[in-house]
TrEMBL record:
Protein name, entry field: ABC transporter permease
Keywords: Cell membrane, Membrane, Transmembrane, Transmembrane helix, Transport
Keyword hit for Transport: yes
Main location: membrane
Species assigned in the record: Paraburkholderia ginsengisoli
One of the Pfam families matching this protein, by short name: BPD_transp_1
Amino acid sequence: MSFLSKLHLRSAHAGLKRGGPPPCGCELPPRRKTAKAVKADKVATVVDRRRGAWRGAVLPLVAIALWSVVSALHLVKSGLLVSPLEVLQTGWQQTISGALLRALSASLAREASGFVIGTAGGLLLGSLLGFSRLARRMVGPSFDTFKQISLFAWIPLISVWFGLGDAAKVVFLSLAALLPVTAHTCDGIHAVPRSYIEVARAFRYSRLQLIAYVIFPAALPSIFTGIYLALIYSWLATLGAEYLLVSGSGIGNLLIDGSEQFRMDLVLFGIIVVGLTGWALNALARAIERAVFARRPARTS
């Protein structure tokens, strides 16, 4: 029997002892949907998602059309705004030469390293602040002060301690991922309803069972939000680190090279790559979140 079932059962017994009706959660379960109805719901969901994707493509298509018109009519100096065709040609050259793959793989490798290190540290620190009153009193005020400091304010100190190479960039990205994961993990643990903990104690759950079967599942949405923000912040911080710590290759360095050579085609191509990569990371995170939460009802039913 799952924890939620025990919670409903205990509420029903309490209602019967008081002589009142059982709570709504103890009514007869609704009839299960047929396979045909479930399939129809899935098809409707897929259609809605596809319609949303097409609607989301309207604004980029309009922007590209306006860009083409402005460049074709020479409303802006050609040195400041090149045509989409030139950007496409530059992108093809960067792709076949392997420069795009080298730059993108270097940036994603740094982003992945910083994200994993920062997320792991954030989960540990957030859990410590969430479960331990002593840690919350001793470390909590310092952490609240630490997260108010701008992330880029650490660049001078990091560059002195770790140089300008990949190690400094990974440390910077780890800080970017650490803060949201820590904050949302701690908040998620504190937001667990007190009634859940009281019922678990009534059923004599051990502390480990309380954490594994009650607190952690209840705090999981907030934890996922922190991880999702960490993924976004670490990608944005990747570009900032490559701008400020210019040693090595990466998408940020590709943008710097384009601006120094006054090649707007290269700059615009780099911006498009950055946007598409961020969109792909966002879509990946949302897909993983949907997959995880889609399995939760089956486990707790």
